[in-house]
Amino acid sequence: MTAGRSTSRRKLRLRLLDVEIAEVRPERTGGFRREHAREAASTLWGFTVIPQEQRHEFAAIEGDEVRGVLAVRISASLAHVESLVVATEYRRRGIGRRLLARAEEIANYYNCHKVTLEVPAVGPARGFFEACGYKTEAVLPQHTFKKDVAVLRKFLL
Description:
There is one protein chain. This protein has about 160 residues and is α+β, with helices and mostly antiparallel strands. It is globular. It has helices spanning about 1-15, 25-45, 95-110, 125-130, and strands at about 55-60, 65-75, 80-85, 115-120, 135-145, 145-155. The protein folds into 2 domains: about 1-45, no CATH class; about 55-155, Aminopeptidase (3-Layer(aba) Sandwich), CATH 3.40.630. The longest helix is centred in the first third of the chain and has 20 residues, at about 25-45. A hairpin with a 2-residue loop joins strand 2 and strand 3.
């Protein structure tokens, strides 16, 4: 039995040597992901996973003008704020808090247990989110643009 395994591994290695690693557009990999994502996630996590990811965009609008935007991704019972941007001249007027509150509402609707986000470890963005009830979950050294990044979270349920 051991000899059979060894032979199988050798064959597998030889087959993999012929694989080309290429950079491709997302359209090229979409079908493969749809076909294999459920099994891969279930193997990874040890239970049946039904991959379902959503992205929501919210905007603070005054008249016809956008004053701020927030993007949130929801997947695996988690919500992740991808970006929050408020026009400079409209900051400190509650727009960011209201956008964030709306993202938390949608996260609750989808039964997410927490919201996460990343910000520079030092700076006003971290203070803003902490004032909104977010706590530091981790600090990743030299992560984005070679700067330390704080991973913040807020439990919802």
